[in-house]
Structures are given as C-alpha cells and as structure tokens.
Amino acid sequence: MKIIRNTFWAVACLMATAAAAQDVKHELKATVNDQVAFPETVPPGNYSGITWIGGNVYAVVCDKSRSDGFFIFHINIDPDTGQISHAYNNEFRSADRANRDQEGICFVEKDSTIFISGEGGNRIMEYRLDTGKRTGRELNIPDSLKASHPNLGFESLTYNAKTGRFWTISESTLPIDGKPCTASNKTRNKLRLLCFDDSLNLVAQYPYEMEMPELKSSTAENYCIGVSDLCALDDGRVIVLERELYAPKLVIGSFVVNKLYVVDPDETGYATALHKKLLVRFKTPKNGLKKDFANYEGMCLGPKLNDGRQVIVMVSDSQNQLHGILKDWMRTVIVK
C-alpha cells in the first residue's frame, strides 16, 4: 500500500519507481459546451456534487441542504452534441440527520448505494439510493488524513465500477503537509490523491500538486483555490477539477478559473508529484451586467454520445442565487 505519512512529500519520488509499467493510453481531448440554467425547474441551491444514476437521472448534493441527504435531478442531454436541453429537480431523499456540509457524491450501482463526502468531520458515508438513509458504512480514512484546515477538507468524490476504486482528495493542503494557498500566501497546494477499494479500505495515495494561482492581487473579499471534484475513468486515469475563485468587494471583476487535468496513478518516473495533462480550461467572469459567473464545484461522468464521446456533467454552487446575481449554471464537457 502506497502510504507515507509525515514524510509523504519528501519521498514521493521513491514511490514512483515502484509502479508497474502500463500500456500507453491515448491522449484525451475535450470541448466545452455553453453553460445553461433552468430557474423555473431547478430551485436555488448550493449544489456542490453530482453523480449519474442512469438514463437522465442524477443524484446531487447541496452543502446547505435542510438535512443530510441528496436531491434527485433529471437532466436531458442531446445525444449528438452533449448539450443540456432541460433539467429539473423534483425530490430530496433525507438521511434525517443534520447537514454536514455535503460536497462530493458517487453512485455504486452494484450495491444501489450512494457515498457522500462531508467537510463536517471529513467522513465519506454510504446511503441507500432508494431512501437516502445511511447504511452505517463509510470509507476507512485514517485520522491523520481527516484533519484539515477549516472548510478545506474532502470536497471531491468519485467511483469507477470497472476498476472498483473510490477516489477523493482534500480541497487544499492538509495541515500535515503545510499551509494552504490563499490570496496573500501564493503557493502551490500540495495534496494527496487517495484511493480506496470495494472493501472501503485505503489502498494507495499519490502526491498531487496544484498550479500557482492566477490572481495578481494580494487581497480579496472572497477567494478560494483548490480541487473541487474528480472523475475516475475506466482505464484508471482520473480527471481533476482545479478551481480558483476571486470576488472583490465591488463584485465587478470577479472570476472563476476552471482547469481540468488528467493524471494517471499507474504512471512511473515522476519526481515529486503526479504528472498532469491539461484537458481544458475555461473562465467565468462577472463583468458589467453579465450574470455568467459560475463556481463549478461538482462533476461526474454521464452518458456517451451517439458517436462514442464521453459526457462530463458539471454543476455550480450559486450560493442560493446570491443577491439575485448568480444562477445555478450547468454545463457539459465532451471528452474523446
């Protein structure tokens, strides 16, 4: 098991040489569709994670929902272009427990269960899909990895049925690895990409280093930078969403930069962190009267298009449509 605790980053290069060589995997390419919103059928929310159940059905978490649990969304996607044509939210399945800042979500079809990561306590728990109630099981996360800086814990979660692996990563640097990047402390966040098996045990962890922030200023009314979600692919690779949000007091000039990177945990030869390949970058600014500012926090693999391309579905956190300025934007990224 690739676990190193206090000396994890110092000796990460030694772990790279232990991995077995794998077949060369084709380079992924992506296109980004226009973002869309459906205010008449999707109530204002703080949507922070999404997972595909099948057909047009998705489970979505909200980090400020009335209780622990998840929503059921129906999202229609054009089978040729991958563009979202309609979406509605018609049900909340409650665990009848207090909200624990639910952030990431994934579906395990073979068990008909949902796993949800919560930054309150940094636990990743299992729920029944049909009722939303907790099963009592959870990923076995070491206590040393549960400790995080406030509101910078396990924001992401993904599961791949073919590999039988769960993946998560903290939003920002864990205390055992250093200080997180902020507007005044510009640095590369050093993270740990964690892998769990179907027995819910931690089987590997890999060093992941974020990019330097694009923000030039040293002050901000609101600023956050970190990994907000993951997508695990059938071939073992993982897509990582790095998100940087900047919002000054006067709002004008706000932006969110979203970068999707591909990493291969099976690779060899990296020095101190997994090699990253930029898949796509897009920016949602707030300028003048435009209301396209979108903080994308959740993503998941969706259906494949008629031509075989893979759809990634993304949801944003509008802070309950803050001040009537923000919208609950959704968009798709098409991967081939």
Write the layout of secondary structure elements.
Elements: H1 12-16, E1 30-32, E2 47-54, E3 57-62, E4 69-77, E5 84-94, E6 102-108, E7 113-118, E8 123-128, E9 134-138, H2 143-146, E10 158-160, E11 165-168, E12 190-196, E13 202-209, E14 222-232, E15 238-247, E16 254-263, E17 277-286, E18 296-304, E19 310-316, E20 330-335
Antiparallel strand pairs: 1-20, 2-3, 3-4, 4-5, 6-7, 7-8, 8-9, 10-11, 11-12, 12-13, 14-15, 15-16, 16-17, 18-19, 19-20
Describe, in short, the structure shown.
The chain is mainly beta and 336 residues long.
Explain what this protein looks like in three dimensions.
Helices cover 3% and strands 43% of the residues. It has helices at 12-16, 143-146; strands spanning 30-32, 47-54, 57-62, 69-77, 84-94, 102-108, 113-118, 123-128, 134-138, 158-160, 165-168, 190-196, 202-209, 222-232, 238-247, 254-263, 277-286, 296-304, 310-316, 330-335. The protein is built from two helices and 20 strands. A four-stranded antiparallel beta sheet has the order 1-20-19-18, with no helix packed on it. Strands 2-3-4-5 form a four-stranded antiparallel beta sheet, with no helix packed on it. Strands 6-7-8-9 form a four-stranded antiparallel beta sheet, with no helix packed on it. It is an all-beta fold and 336 residues long. Strand 8 (123-128) and strand 9 (134-138) form a beta hairpin.
Quick tags:
336 residues, mainly beta, four-stranded antiparallel sheet, 2 helices, 43% strand, globular, disordered N terminus
